[in-house]
Amino acid sequence: MLLFCLEMDKKTEEFYIRLKEELSTTSVWPSEYLYKFIVPTSPKKIEEVENAFDNIGAVIQTKQSKNAKYTSVSINVMMESPEHVIEKYIEVSSIEGIISL
């Protein structure tokens, strides 16, 4: 069962419920999962994203936008279940300015 933050709006909660259902039916778990985020280009913000995936065997790639205002962060990592995938999305959602793709 997913545990949602009390502050999560209904639309966000529904998104995570749909994502969990889709991940459950399209993959065999544990499975590799590719996260993609965009953050304002700031060493601190990039480090916050990277730290969320520290010590779990993640392969992390970053790439700055053409004008260097934003940085994309791609993270390929083995995850145990759809619930664990969603827990990471929720964990990084507190990083100011982050966009999950």
TrEMBL record:
SUPFAM superfamilies: YbeD/HP0495-like
Native source organism of the sequence: Flavobacterium sangjuense
Record's protein name: DUF493 domain-containing protein
Matches recorded under Gene3D superfamilies: 3.30.70.260
InterPro entries: UPF0250_YbeD-like, YbeD-like_sf
Superkingdom per UniProt: Bacteria
